[in-house]
Amino acid sequence: MAARRRPRSAAPRRVATLSVHTSPLDQPGAGDAGGMNVYVVETSRRLAARGIEVDVFTRATSSDLPPVVEMSPGVTVRHVSAGPFEGLGKEELPAQLCAFTAAVLREEAQHEPGHFDVVHSHYWLSGQVGWLARDRWSVPLIHTAHTLAKVKNAALAAGDRPEPRARVIGEEQVVTEADRLIANTADEARELVDHYAADPRRILVVPPGVDLDRFTPGDRRAARRALGVDEDAVVLLFVGRIQPLKAPDLLLEAAARMLADDPGLRDRLQVHVIGAPSGSGLEAPRQLEQLAATLGIADLVRFLPPQHAERLAEHYRAADVAVVPSHNESFGLVALEAQACGTPVVAASVGGLRTAVRDGVSGVLVEGRDPADYATAIRAVLARRELLSAGARRHAGGFSWERTVDSLVAAYTAAAADMATAHRREVAGALLRPARSLAALRPLPGAQVAR
């Protein structure tokens, strides 16, 4: 094993990024891949562009995966063997954290001490690994939760499974141990304090960004031609994993309500659902299609698999409204991507969506879960689409991955400086302790000295 070394306080040269349960190479929108994957990819690439090398450690889920993949110049993805390659659910991964941690420590041990300058863990499973790596390497642990069990459990969809107690305990431990906690929004920062007793001094609010070069406004007619969508269609778009938490069923119910209120809309209305079953949604993978049939709108709903970013941008441009009806979101990157393409958003007024969408300017936030309220909000956006489209572009323009990475580098550097300061105080204290011991041997005034 590598020897412990004195902490550094300068900007990092190399970051160990931990993403245990999902790989940045996975396609977002299916399985466990979502906004967190996008976050890791985009921040890692931009860190590398600044000369900060990034090693991303993730669990191997196939024997066909190479041990090491260069995702982009300066970013290396390391596939760690920990447990069976396939058939292992996220809830079973805690039993494999010891194997995963051992592999991470062995990789560092192959280099000179001080190979990594900081550990950045994503999600609580990674935080558990990062906790041990931080102590072993004497480097700061930066943690981004992405979702919090206590918050999710407080806003469960009907019939959805609550997050287990083991996860709650694991999150509490990581929150206590991390040198910096990265919160996506001020709301999430408050949740960390209120639900997890986090130290506010160690929390930094760092909003995620959007790729403003990829997700851009474009020719809506051209986008519709490319996707085979009629020019006069009214297109409602959902993008995300198909699971109760994301609530795509609410969009279908809202669309059915719109048709009930205006039957003449049937010839033009289309609902596009992009994503794949995930989480508890895997237990009934055709439930959404069955709901569409029950509501009498099966002919209006187009189900599409997850799309690569370039194609996804076309879908955003082709849509009239993007709908994000989640029960909870730590941020909601889909909403930001849609707005960057000039598409206004109707979203649930929950969690990070209150930051990702500016109510009345870039879209509409909806309180509650009533499909009638969503139908009303969608109609309101359609009536003001051009104005809200301009507001959406302006709002999204305030978020960029460069800005996110600026804050992350500052967090890394400040945490390292704090650790170096603590180390110097520890050394100074150790030097003083022997002097105090010698002073204690001197006789007190008036004391008898043995001869």
UniProtKB/TrEMBL annotation:
Q: What does this protein do?
A: Catalyzes the transfer of a N-acetyl-glucosamine moiety to 1D-myo-inositol 3-phosphate to produce 1D-myo-inositol 2-acetamido-2-deoxy-glucopyranoside 3-phosphate in the mycothiol biosynthesis pathway.
What are the boundaries of the signal sequence?
Answer: none
Which GO biological-process labels does this protein carry? mycothiol biosynthetic process
Q: Which residues form the Glycosyltransferase subfamily 4-like N-terminal domain?
A: 34-209
User: Origin, by domain of life?
Assistant: Bacteria
What is the uppermost EC class here?
transferase
- What CDD domains has UniProt attached to this entry? GT4_sucrose_synthase
Q: Record's family?
A: Belongs to the glycosyltransferase group 1 family. MshA subfamily.
Source species: Geodermatophilus sabuli
Q: Which keywords has UniProt assigned to this entry?
A: Glycosyltransferase, Magnesium, Metal-binding, Transferase
A GO MF annotation of the entry reads: D-inositol-3-phosphate glycosyltransferase activity
This protein is called what? D-inositol-3-phosphate glycosyltransferase
Q: Which residues bind Mg(2+)?
A: 316-317, 319, 343
Q: Which reaction does it catalyse?
A: 1D-myo-inositol 3-phosphate + UDP-N-acetyl-alpha-D-glucosamine = 1D-myo-inositol 2-acetamido-2-deoxy-alpha-D-glucopyranoside 3-phosphate + UDP + H(+)
Q: Where does UDP-N-acetyl-alpha-D-glucosamine bind?
A: 27-28, 35, 241, 246, 307, 329, 337
